[in-house]
Amino acid sequence: MGLVTRTVWVALAVALPVGAQQYVYPAKGQSPEKQKSDEAECYTWAVQQSGFDPAKPPPTAAPAQQAPVTGSGARARGAVAGAAVGAATGRDAGDAAVAGAVAGGVVQRGANRKAAAEQQQAAGQQTQAGQASFQKARSACLEGRGYTVK
């Protein structure tokens, strides 16, 4: 068995999640060497067809850094609202503006966290779709070569 074939075979064995393991049966009496060669070739073909390589999954999104709230306008809007509330209730408008600015920043950070979580979820769904596409292509290739794939 060549080094490339062995590398692809090992990469496939390591890359597929346990729940996604595929069983390949040589339905036409193919030898173990022929099966390994066919599986390696189908692995490469499936990567080309699906655009997804289980041995090199896309990097997971790094935890979002706390983005500065400056520039979003949340603090400024909070300060204006706080000053207005302070003036209407007879409190010190300056203190109320500071409190409003802090509240605006907290609201914006919460929105930033939500957006980061949504991005991570989308990346996870994209990875799952890539794995499914890869497995479908690999199965089609192997079945075309006379194997039963489950």
How would you characterize this protein structure?
With 150 residues, this protein is mostly helical. The protein has a domain at 3-59 and 135-149. It is 67% helix and 3% strand. It is built from four helices and two strands; from the N terminus they run αβαααβ. A two-stranded antiparallel ribbon has the order 1-2. It is rod-shaped. Residues 3-16 have low confidence and may be disordered.
Beta content: under 5%
Structural class by helix and strand composition: mainly alpha
What are the secondary-structure elements, in order, as H or E? HEHHHE
CA-based shape: rod-shaped
Please outline the major beta sheet: 2 strands, antiparallel
- Summed up, the helix count is 4
Which key terms come to mind for this protein?
150 residues; mainly alpha; 4 helices; disordered N terminus
Structure at a glance:
With 150 residues, the protein is mostly helical. The chain has helices spanning 3-15, 32-50, 74-89, 93-144; strands at residues 24-25, 148-149.
Helix and strand layout, with pairings?
Elements: H1 3-15, E1 24-25, H2 32-50, H3 74-89, H4 93-144, E2 148-149
Helix pairs in contact: 1-2, 2-4, 3-4
